[in-house]
Amino acid sequence: MTSKLLVKEKEIVIPGQELAEGLDYLPSQGSFREGNKIISNFLGLASINERFIKVIQLTGKYNAKVNDLVIGKVSDIGFYGWTLDIGCAYNAVLSIRETSGFIERNDDLTKHYDYGDLVVAQVVKVTKQKQIDVTTKGPGLKKLIGGKIIEVTPSKVPRMIGKQASMITMIKDATKCNVIIGQNGRVWIKGETLDKEILATKIIMKIEQESHIEGLTDKIKEMLQEKK
Question: What domains lie within the chain, and their CATH numbers?
């Protein structure tokens, strides 16, 4: 049987949609084989890399992976560390030994991270039982002070960052804002003025809404130039 590709790159596909026929193509993330056909698992964007077909999910909860940069909110404090809400089905644990600096025994942990504090952390372990461990040891990992948080779809984060961080660098340079994008879909924005924070927010939301559209980078560049 002749193999046939049934979708185009970046085409929006729905769960159960046929993506390809024949054995020349192989399912990847977000797709599966059913007999001679490759089927989509999700609502998302088709991505074709030589023989591999994957679907980049447009909706859904964040699934933690080792080395992910996340922005968590302190939801609980215990004897040995903090529990962070990272927008996942499971909370993350930040233990005392995974923080930078020395913390004395019986120290008041709220002096370091208090309830509701926002923390930039990195995922260091995800077990089969879905226990998620994070660390704040490393450059850029810290408590966030001031600024604002917006929530975006986690699957859109790579588009917001861009290849070799091109998109996020352009946004930072044009708005003069400090922007941190977590893989869990939380974005922290802190600017010199409220107007600049609003501009950065509008740009981020524009990318989320139009991440599948060709020529998005040029469109964002034009928007930023108009605001100068």
Answer: 4-57 (2.40.50.100), 69-144 (2.40.50.140), 148-226 (3.30.1370.10)
